[in-house]
Amino acid sequence: xxxxxxxxxxxxTGQVVYHVAARxxxxxxxxxxxxxxxxGVALLVTVIAGLVAHELSAEIPPAGLLLRGVALGxxxxxxxxxxxxxxxxxxxxxxxxxxxxxIATIVLLPIGVVHFRDQLSWLNVLGTxxxxxxxxxxxx
Length: 140
Fold this sequence. Notes:
The protein has 140 residues and is mostly helical. It has one domain (2-137). The chain is built from six helices and no strands.
C-alpha cells in the first residue's frame, strides 16, 4: 500500500509542477520554445542531436523562460513514471487517473490563489470538497 501511495505522490508532484510551470509561462513566449526546452531536459539526446545538427536556435532564452522549460522537462517524466508504477501496484485505470487529478487539483488550488492570484469562489471551495469526497468514495 505504501508503494502505491508513493507512486501516486510522484504523479501528483509531477502534475503540480507541470501546471505551475505551464501556467506561469509568459503569454508572449513561443510555446514551441517552451516545449523544445522541456523535452530537451526530459530527452537530453534530442538536445544533443539538435546541437550537432545546428537546428536549434542560437538565441539563449531569458532565465524565466528557461526555468519554466526545465520545470516542465522535470515534471513530464514524473507523471509518466508515476502512472506506470501506480498501475503496476494496482491503481485501477477506470478511476485512478480521476483520483490523481482530483488530488492535484486540490494541491493546485492554493497555489493558483496565492501564486497566480486566481479568484476563489464558494463554488470553487464546494468543488474542492466534492472532489475530496469523491476521492474518499473511490478509495475502495
